[in-house]
Design brief:
This protein is 20% helix and 27% strand. By secondary structure, the protein is α+β, with helices and mostly antiparallel strands. The protein has a single domain, classed as Ribonuclease Z/Hydroxyacylglutathione hydrolase-like (Metallo-beta-lactamase, Chain A).
C-alpha cells in the first residue's frame, strides 16, 4: 500500500489504499490548504525526483530535502557524545545520507520543535532505532503514529552532554527549542525552528501564531517565551532553513524583540 504525503506541509500518513480526506496539519488555521484543493503524493513518487543533501550550516551539519518539499526546513545534527541529536526533521529520507550519518556516529535521538516539522521523523527513527522527543501537548498532531514517539513533559528536558530542550509554547502549545551550550565556541547556541523565527533583519527575531497566515500571538505568550529562555546563554540562533542564522548577540536580540512585540501590541509603535 502507498504511504501518502501532504506536499503542502510534508506530513506523512499510515500506509493505506486511499489518501485521507484532508490533512489535519493544513486544515488548522496556522497552515493552509491550497486554493486548488488538498493535494497528495506518495513516498514512492517522491523517491523519483527528491533526495537528501548533507552539508555544513555554520558549525553544524544540516540535512535538507532537494528540491524543497513542504515548508522547506532542514534538520540539524547536534553533537551528543559520539552521536548526534537530530533537531527537527526532513520531509524525505534517503538511505545514502542515512548511511553517511551512521558512518559519523549515528543518531541518539530526534527532537522536534513543533508539528510542522514532524514530516519524515518515523523513517529516521526506525533507521537509527532512536526516540522521537515531542512535548506532550503536541502529541495529538502526529499523523503517522510510531512506537518511537516519546512525549516529554515539564518545562525542560535534559538530554545529557549539555543539551537541554526548553518548552516555550507560542506557535504551538508544545513548542520547544534546543539549547546547545558548546555552540558558538562555548558562547552557546539556540536551535529554535520557528518558535523563535529568524527573520531577514538579523537585529531582531519574530514570534507568531501563524507565519503563512500572519496571525499574532498574545503579548503574554511572547513574554513567556522570553522568560523561558532568560536562564540560558547563547550567542547564535539557528532558525529552520539553510543560512537562517543569527550569528551574534542572540540573547540580547531575543530580549529586544520580546520588548518590541509588547510595544507593538500596546499601540506604542506609531505608523
Amino acid at each position: 500500500m502507498p504511504r501518502y504525503v501532504c506536499p503542502t506541509c510534508a506530513a506523512q500518513f499510515p500506509d493505506s489504499d486511499e489518501p485521507p480526506e484532508l490533512c489535519p496539519i493544513c486544515t488548522d488555521e496556522r497552515q493552509y490548504v491550497p486554493e486548488s484543493g488538498q493535494p497528495w503524493t506518495t513516498l514512492d513518487e517522491l523517491a523519483e525526483d527528491h533526495h537528501n543533501e548533507l552539508r555544513e550550516d555554520e558549525e553544524l551539519l544540516g540535512v535538507g530535502t532537494e528540491p524543497s518539499l513542504g515548508i522547506g526546513q532542514r534538520a540539524l545534527l547536534v553533537p551528543h557524545g559520539e552521536r548526534f541529536v537530530m533537531w527537527d526533521c526532513t520531509p524525505y529520507f534517503s538511505d545514502e545520507v542515512a548511511d553517511e550519518i551512521e558512518s559519523r556516529g549515528g543518531l541518539s535521538a530526534i527532537a522536534i520543535s513543533h508539528p510542522h516539522y514532524y514530516t519524515g521523523m518515523a523513517d529516521w527513527a526506525q533507521r537509527f532505532a532512536c526516540p522521537i522527543l515531542i512535548h506532550t501537548p503536541d502529541e495529538k498532531w502526529v499523523t503517522r503514529p510510531d512506537d518511537a514517539v516519546e512525549p516529554w513533559t515539564g518545562e525542560t528536558r535534559d538530554l545529557g552532554e549539555g543539551l537541554t530542550l526548553i518548552h516555550c509554547g507560542g506557535h504551538f502549545a508544545g513548542g520547544a527549542v534546543l539549547h546547545w551550550p558548546q555552540g558558538a565556541d562555548g558562547a552557546g547556541a539556540l536551535l529554535s525552528g520557528d518558535i523563535v523565527q529568524v527573520i531577514p533583519d538579523r537585529t531582531h527575531v519574530a514570534f507568531l501564531y501563524s507565519y503563512p497566515n500572519m496571525i499574532p500571538l498574545p503579548d503574554a505568550a511572547v513574554q513567556r517565551i522570553g522568560d523561558a529562555l532568560e536562564p540560558y546563554d547563547y550567542e547564535v540562533i539557528y532558525g529552520a532553513w539553510w543560512d537562517r542564522i543569527v550569528r551574534r548577540d542572540g540573547k540580547d536580540i531575543v530580549r529586544r524583540s520580546v520588548e518590541r512585540y509588547g510595544r507593538a501590541l500596546r499601540g506604542e509603535m506609531v505608523p
